[in-house]
Amino acid sequence: MTEDDVPTEWLRAVLPLAVLAVVAEEETYGYAVAQRLQAGGLGAVKGGTLYPVLNRLEAEGLLTSSWREGVGGPGRKFFAVTAAGRDSLDRRSAAWHTFTERAGGLLPDPRSTR
Amino acid sequence: MTTTPDTITAYRESLVLHLRLQEVPPDRIGEIVAEVESHVADTGEDPTEAFGTPRDYAAGLTDEHRKPPWWWTTTTLVLAAAAGWLSGRGAFPLLRAEPYLGRSGWLWLATGLVLGVPPAWMVGRRARQVLDPRTGQPLVATPRWAPLVFFAIPFAIVLVGWVAIELAN
């Protein structure tokens, strides 16, 4: 297993938070979110995985969506973060960092121990 | 893999069908289908490659959309059956100009029609057309005669029964 090859459970755990963070950066649509996640190093996220996450975040009131006409193309569904979404992102990000630091403290670090 | 308009249409029709079977509300079906089409228009992917088969994708959305409980469907069926039976029970005496169990056919027919309102509403709500949120147009064309068939079948049964009884006399 290489450093970039992470188990899918890890991705499933962090994906809702990562998607929320991407939409919080700027109002955006599904494909652009997938590209941003890939550029961020999380690998290619399929549409079949991404849209259920976006819809769940919307159902929880953390995002809102609206269809806009594309330039000469089909419409796109744009997602924007709500105030509750921003609040949730702050709290969950803090919790995530605490969690990963604690987990990291239990694990051997091959980079420091050779 | 090349994505043709035919691939998209086939995927759309199959996905609408499977979401209908999961009893997802029609407005949500429109959203889900439009998301798939908008996404593959951006990526150029085959829909099955990006979202899985329509059956699997629809099944995977079940935690988001819970099916109505079994008693909901049962109540609809029982009410619809009672409504159909009472309407038929009323229509026969009316056609033969004689009462049933001492009551006018109109009374049986009216009771049947009143009982039929809730199941007709429940079925109608689930059977609403699926609209494309991008255009407001129907996603899948439904023949105009489709709702007529719904009413024509019980009507035809009563009529055939009446004709049979008249001929026997």
TrEMBL record, chain A:
Xref: InterPro entries: Metal_resp_DNA-bind_regulator, Tscrpt_reg_PadR_N, WH-like_DNA-bd_sf, WH_DNA-bd_sf
Protein name per Swiss-Prot or TrEMBL: PadR family transcriptional regulator
Residue ranges occupied by any Transcription regulator PadR N-terminal domain in the UniProt entry: 19-90
Residue ranges that the Swiss-Prot or TrEMBL entry lists as coiled coil: none
